[in-house]
Amino acid sequence: MPTSELTDAATSVLTPDEFTARLRALAPRYWDRHPFHLRLHEGRLSRHELRLWAANRWYYQRAIPRKDAAILANCPDVEVRRAWRERIVWHDGSGPGEGGAENWLRLAEAVGLTREEVLDERHVLPGTRFAVDAYVTFARTRPWVEAVASGLTEMFSRGLMARRLVDMRRHYPWIAEAGFTYFTTRLQVIADEGRSTVDIVVRNCRTREQQEAAVAALAFKCDVLRAVLDAVDYYS
C-alpha cells in the first residue's frame, strides 16, 4: 500500500461502531481483573484489608463530583451540562445525609471504620492520592470531551458491581446490609449513564485525532483505577 494510502487509513474518522469497539476493547485494562479485586470477590480479604480498601476508595469517591464539576466548567454544550450536573447531585446528594458519597461512608462504617478516620483521610495511601489527584487534574486541564471519555469505565462497571454485591454478601456476612446501599442504588443508574456517556463521546469526537484522544483518556482512567488498587494491595 502506498505511503499516502497508509496515512489516509491512519487518519480517517472511525465509524460510530468502529469507535465504540475501540473503546470497549479496553475492557481488559479495567480493574476487575486486578489481584486485589479477585481476592475480594473470593472472600479472601481480612477485615483490615477491607477497611484499607474502603478508606482509599473513599478518596476516589469524594473526587468524582469535583471531576464532574470540572467537566461542567469546561463544557460549552448546554444540553450536556444539563445532563451531567445530575451526576454531581447523585454523588453529593441534595442535602446532608444523602448521596453516593454518604452511602460509601456507610459502607466504611459497616466494615469497622469510624466516620472521623475516613473523613480525615488518615488511611489514604500516597499512591492513591497521587493517582486520584491526577485524574481530577486531567478533567480540569484536558478538553471536556476527553474528560467525559475517561469516565467510560462505566461501560465495564455494571457487571463488576452486581457481582461484587453478591460476593460480598456471601463471603462477608458480618457486613450490615445498610453498608451495601451504595452498590444497590448505583446499579439503578449506571447502565443509563454508561449509554449516555458513549453517545456524548461518539457525537462530539468528530476527527480521528479526537477519537484517539478519547481512547487514550479511557486507558488513562483504567490506569488510575488500577494504581489505586496497586497501592492498597502493596500495603495490605
Automatic annotation (TrEMBL):
It holds the Pfam family TENA_THI-4. InterPro entries: Haem_Oase-like_multi-hlx, PqqC, PqqC-like, Thiaminase-2/PQQC. Transmembrane segments: none annotated. GO terms for biological process: pyrroloquinoline quinone biosynthetic process. Residues 22-230 form the Thiaminase-2/PQQC domain. Keywords: Oxidoreductase, PQQ biosynthesis. The keyword Acyltransferase does not apply. Pathway: Cofactor biosynthesis; pyrroloquinoline quinone biosynthesis; Cofactor biosynthesis; thiamine diphosphate biosynthesis. Belongs to the PqqC family. NCBIfam families: PQQ_syn_pqqC. Ring cyclization and eight-electron oxidation of 3a-(2-amino-2-carboxyethyl)-4,5-dioxo-4,5,6,7,8,9-hexahydroquinoline-7,9-dicarboxylic-acid to PQQ. This is Pyrroloquinoline-quinone synthase. It comes from Saccharothrix carnea. The lineage of its organism: Bacteria, Bacillati, Actinomycetota, Actinomycetes, Pseudonocardiales.
